[in-house]
Specification:
The structure holds two protein chains of two kinds. By secondary structure, chain A is mostly helical. Chain A has one domain: Arp2/3 complex 21 kDa subunit ARPC3, CATH 1.10.1760. Chain A has eight helices and no strands. Chain A is globular. The relative contact order of chain A is 0.14. The mean pLDDT of chain A is 82. The radius of gyration of chain B is 43 Å and the shape is rod-shaped. In chain B, the strands form two sheets. Chain B has a six-stranded antiparallel sheet. Chain B has a six-stranded antiparallel β-barrel with strand order 6-7-8-11-10-9. The N and C termini of chain B lie far apart (105 Å). Chain B is an alpha+beta fold. In chain B, 35% of the residues lie in helices and 24% in strands. Chain B has three domains: 93 residues; 100 residues, Thrombin, subunit H; 83 residues, Thrombin, subunit H, CATH 2.40.10.350. Chain B is built from six helices and twelve strands. Chains A and B meet through helix 1, helix 3 and helix 4 of A and helix 1 and helix 2 of B.
Chain lengths: 177, 338
């Protein structure tokens, strides 16, 4: 129960920080995308099904704060949550590098698919090259923030490391064996 | 991954599709709800960020201010040290100059006895009663009939007397000293007594020089004429407007102006004003206070070496110079050693 409250608080703070504290543009080269880091944290710390639900919740909050039509961020977040669970076996037992890499991947995917989906659904023309460039720039900043956060977590607690992974993983998962 | 992950994902995606096609009112309400949920956090986060920014700016300012203060302190210390060094360099240069001049003198001149030298003689100021009797000739045993009498100039003067005259080789203009300070000068010289003027008396005139005291020692200033005004203060004339004078400056007899080589103290500057069209300063000097019952004084006497003046005399054998029996020196000024 406490874990879920903690995750809820983490999501709330993450979304607030993303909307209020993260500048719109850092040195003209993108900005960190904190929801991607949230998804990776949730995927590492939660039961798989719950992780997807929480991912959907993150998407729902982003939908409510965006000016685009509702539903896109929920769908993308849910898909990303599923994707992280599918690949979890590959990266869960790895360390900081894997977590940062997954954050970058999640960011690129989300930041690339979101505008393209909106453009397709709205019948607009999208420039894949510029979308991908922006996505990669955002992913780079996301990696920096993820590194700082995870190092900070490691200093004060175990963080989303192996012990947490083991606790949250089901019995059949390789991490528990 | 659990078995329910797929269905949950499908449900969420369907929810997303549903939200996409939801009516505008529903969308607006959902947006309002989400906004209301997030808003308190946003406000708190913004205020925290502003507070952190203000604190950082304040710390930077404080650090900057303390750094600036430290820089200013170091700069003022540097200036003080530079001024001290400059003063020491000036003194060193003067000493080197003096040494070089003396080294350049040929041996015969260097060992030549002085033409004139100064010496101090003790004298006593005669009291009013004694002065009256002296002037009336009542103190001389032989009296006027014996042809022994004091000089008319001394007798007729109303100035105070000291008990030294031609018999003590006193000359007019010899300085009258009290300790190490000039309090006046000999005016008229009789056989056995002499009249004197105090520095503050009208009619007193003496050459003077300003000396500024700094942290690095004494700095010699402009030269002028000290005139008594018949008041408690004197007037120092001849200080050009281009020279610097300040209240508190000391006034001494000029250096290299005669004997002795060490300046003697007159008093201190109590007023120094310069008008916009004035060519010289208006300077008032407070002389050394003289006690009402002035008794024992010294007369700074200048005498000529008779050996140097005697005609047909052989050049004197080189002799070592001797110091005067009573050498006067300022606390911070020392004559260069030979």
């Amino acid at each position: 129960m406490l874990r879920h409250v903690g995750i809820l608080v983490m999501i709330y703070l993450g979304v607030v920080a993303h909307c209020s504290l993260v500048p719109a543009d850092v040195m003209g080269m993108g900005r960190p995308f904190l929801p991607a880091i949230l998804l990776v944290f949730i995927a590492a710390a939660c039961h798989p099904t719950l992780a997807i639900v929480w991912a959907g919740f993150v998407g729902f909050l982003l939908d409510g704060l965006s000016t685009e039509r509702l539903g896109i961020q929920v769908g993308l977040a849910a898909m990303l949550g599923l994707g992280l669970q599918l690949t979890h076996s590959l990266w869960r037992s790895r360390s900081l590098v894997a977590l940062i890499a997954m954050s970058m991947l999640a960011c690129v995917t989300w930041r690339a698919l979101s505008p393209m989906t909106q453009a397709i659904l709205a019948g607009r023309v999208a420039n894949p090259h510029s979308i991908l460039t922006d996505a990669v720039q955002d992913a780079a900043w996301t990696a920096v923030v993820a590194c700082v956060l995870m190092l900070g977590l490691r200093l004060f607690s175990n963080g989303p490391t192996e012990s947490v992974v083991k606790r949250s993983a089901p019995r059949w998962s390789p991490a528990v064996r | 991954m659990s078995a329910a992950s797929g269905p949950v994902t499908c449900v969420l995606m369907l929810a997303g599709v549903g939200l996409y096609f939801a009516p505008e009112t529903v969308s607006a309400r959902i947006r309002a709800v989400v906004s209301d949920i997030i808003k308190p956090g946003q406000v708190a986060a913004t205020q925290l960020a502003n507070l952190a920014r203000a604190e950082t700016a304040h710390m930077a300012t404080r650090t900057e201010r303390s750094r600036q203060r430290e820089i200013e302190q170091l700069q003022s210390q540097l200036l003080e040290e530079q001024a001290r060094t400059a003063g020491l360099q000036i003194r060193l240069a003067r000493l080197a100059d003096l040494e070089a001049r003396e080294a350049a003198l040929p041996d015969a001149v260097r060992s030549l006895p002085r033409l004139a030298s100064s010496s101090l003689i003790e004298a006593t100021v005669l009291g009013d009663a004694v002065t009256e009797k002296w002037r009336k000739g009542k103190l001389l045993n032989q009296g006027e009939a014996g042809g022994v009498r004091e000089s008319e100039l001394v007798v007729k003067s109303r100035r105070p007397l000291v008990d030294a005259g031609r018999d003590g080789s006193v000359s007019p203009e010899d300085d009258l000293l009290l300790g190490r300070c000039v309090i006046g000068k000999i005016e008229r010289v009789g056989r056995w007594t002499s009249t004197f003027l105090l520095v503050s008396d009208a009619g007193y005139r003496g050459r003077a020089q300003l000396i500024h005291q700094t942290d690095s020692g004494f700095v010699f200033g402009a030269k002028g004429i000290l005139e008594g005004q018949g008041e408690s203060t004197c007037r120092l004339k001849g200080i050009a407007s281009s020279d610097s004078v300040a209240v508190g400056d000391s006034v001494y007899t000029p250096t290299r102006d005669g004997f002795p080589s060490t300046p003697l103290y007159y008093g201190r500057v109590v007023e120094a004003t310069l008008g916009p069209n004035d060519s010289e300063w208006y300077v008032r000097v407070e002389p050394v206070p003289v006690p009402n019952d002035l008794k024992d004084v010294q007369i700074l006497r200048t005498s000529i070496n008779s050996d140097r003046l005697s005609p047909g005399s052989n050049p004197p054998e080189p002799t070592a110079r001797t110091r005067d029996p009573k050498d006067i020196s300022l606390s911070n000024y020392e004559a260069p050693s030979r």
